[in-house]
Amino acid sequence: MQYIVLYRSAEVSNPTRTLLGSKTHTKIGFWNVRTMATATKSAQIAEEMKRYELDILGLSEVRWPGTDRRVVSGLTFIYSGREDGKHFEGVGIMMTPRVAKSMLEWEPISSRIIRARFSTRHVNMTILQCYAPTNEADDDKKDTFYEQLQDQINKTQKHDLLVVMGDFNAKVGSDNVGVE
Fold this sequence. Notes:
Elements: H1 10-13, E1 28-32, H2 39-51, E2 56-60, E3 67-72, E4 75-80, E5 91-95, H3 97-101, E6 103-108, E7 113-118, E8 125-131, H4 139-155, E9 161-167
Parallel strand pairs: 1-2, 8-9
Antiparallel strand pairs: 2-5, 3-4, 4-5, 6-7, 7-8
């Protein structure tokens, strides 16, 4: 049996500000952090986000189990990890207080995909933060990931601005020995 959990609260379902508009700029970034297992890593990531003046930062390989919404160094962090308690995979989105106030909803799809939707001035924006399996992963894992991603793309409301970002484990170059 599968469960879909859509997180809504009074704070989330009634955004007080819009994220994008003619008078605001929103800077979005991505980082494969390899792990957030140490206590100092979360604070370090938050400081780097502030240093680069990012409003939204997508994170891969968070390696936190479960799903939650937390405040880290004054920034809101939503994440989706494995449900079996293992510290592998995991994705998240870290955001400034201004962005957090414009969040309409968020949904943990799997330990490799998280979705968040934000209020903007003219259209809403949906962000899909992803962490794809490597080429070495078995075909079932890869197929499941890409089916889930396509399903989320298809479910995105027609007029939403869609941002798909993350670590897709792509390899470039001419050395394709052993590649299907």
